[in-house]
Design brief:
The chain is 52% helix and 10% strand. The protein is built from 12 helices and 8 strands. Strands 1, 2, 3, 4, 5, 6, 7 and 8 form an 8-stranded parallel beta sheet that branches. Helix 8 crosses helix 9 and helix 10 crosses helix 11. It is elongated, with a radius of gyration of 45 Å. The protein starts with a helix and ends in a 7-residue tail after the last strand. 32% of the residues are buried.
């Protein structure tokens, strides 16, 4: 019996030992978990507090609108709260715009177009020297004509040369008068001149010709050295670009129109294409009239240059002379350019122009 009791007591002692060990292990695990939770929570709480502190600092700076050049805030923004950064940027942009009165973004996007339009209009009406059109030694006089007494109202045609861009056309349209536009052939400065012409009820072509003392030639310039074949080809090219053209006048051309052989080749080529020629009379020695008469054709030439001087008052005095000439001869042709003062002078002379019948040049030719 004693031996049995001894064995039973040993077994109980071993079981108790294992239980104690297990309890110690469980306690250790629980302590570790609780300790980790506590320290983790404290660290997270501290981090949250730090972030809240940063957020409050940024909001305070935002309220003071003083973060524009704040280095500390910039550093914080890189590390914290992207949403706050966006709000700050909006606030700064608003403050800056208000301080310098900048227009809203939508208006700023439209502004370049407005500026471009203004620049284009300014270029279109910019006053430039028109003296390249005629012989600089003397202003060519109008063709000799007799006095004509008639009960019909005198006719006056005003031709605006050098038309090549949209704003030129718009300036002439703004006058609301039957003004004849003479378009230069397409060039780098006016690549769509022929397209603009097609939208007009009536138009002419201002064909460049060689001058005595002018080197800034336009494309399609005719020269005295050109053969009949070259001139005829050039005229056909103009006809293709301007299908409805029936009237051409010369751009510069003091040298070309003074050479009878060159003029003869030109009139021959124009006659083949059923195109009439109006002499701009850029030189007193022009041979256009002589050649036209040899072809049995009517000669028509410019009577008055409106703007070989840029002053608006001068242009208005030239318009008055053109009106008087129309009354004297029954009709007259005046030539100007799309300059600011020329357009203004015509606009301010509308009352005077009522004393004649302002017409397209085909009503005079």
């Amino acid at each position: 019996m004693a031996k049995r009791r001894s064995r039973s007591s040993g077994k109980n002692s071993n079981s108790l030992k294992y239980i104690v060990i297990a309890l110690i292990f469980i306690a250790t695990v629980l302590f570790s978990l609780l300790g980790g939770y506590y320290f983790g929570y404290s660290e997270a709480k501290e981090d949250m507090a730090q972030k809240e502190k940063v957020r409050l600092e940024m909001l305070e700076k935002l309220e003071n609108a003083s973060i524009g050049k704040d280095k500390t805030t910039d550093e914080l923004l890189k590390k914290n709260e992207p949403a706050v950064e966006q709000e700050i940027e909006k606030k700064v942009e608003k403050d800056v715009n208000e301080s310098v009165k900048i227009a809203p973004k939508a208006e700023l996007e439209k502004e370049p177009k407005k500026q471009e339009l203004k620049a284009e209009t300014k270029t279109a009406l910019k006053t430039i020297d028109s003296s390249h059109e005629y012989d600089p030694s003397t202003l060519p006089q109008p063709p000799k004509r007799g006095v004509r007494a008639s009960s019909e109202k005198p006719k006056l045609a005003i031709i605006i040369d050098d038309v090549s861009i949209k704003s030129h056309v718009s300036a002439v349209h703004g006058l609301n008068l039957p003004i004849t536009m003479s378009f230069l052939p397409p060039s780098e400065n006016g690549p769509k001149s022929n397209i603009l012409a097609q939208n007009e009820k009536f138009y002419m072509v201002h064909l460049p010709m060689e001058a005595q003392n002018f080197t800034k030639e336009e494309p399609f310039t005719l020269r005295v050295s050109d053969s009949q074949s070259e001139i005829s080809q050039r005229v056909r090219a103009i006809k293709e670009l301007f299908p409805r053209v029936h009237y051409i006048n010369n751009h510069t051309g003091s040298k070309f129109t003074s050479d009878e052989a060159s003029v003869n080749r030109l009139i021959y080529a124009l006659d083949k294409e059923n195109i009439n020629f109006i002499d701009s009379r850029t030189v007193a020695s022009t041979k256009i009239q002589k050649v036209m008469e040899s072809y049995g054709k009517k000669y028509v030439g410019r009577d008055i240059f409106l703007d070989h001087q840029a002053d608006k008052g001068y242009v208005k005095s030239q318009i008055k002379k053109a009106v008087e000439m129309a009354k004297l001869h029954g009709n007259a042709i005046a030539i100007g350019h799309p300059h600011e003062n020329t357009i203004l002078a015509i606009s301010e002379s509308k009352e005077l122009l009522k004393s004649v019948e302002l017409v397209f040049v085909d009503k005079i030719y």
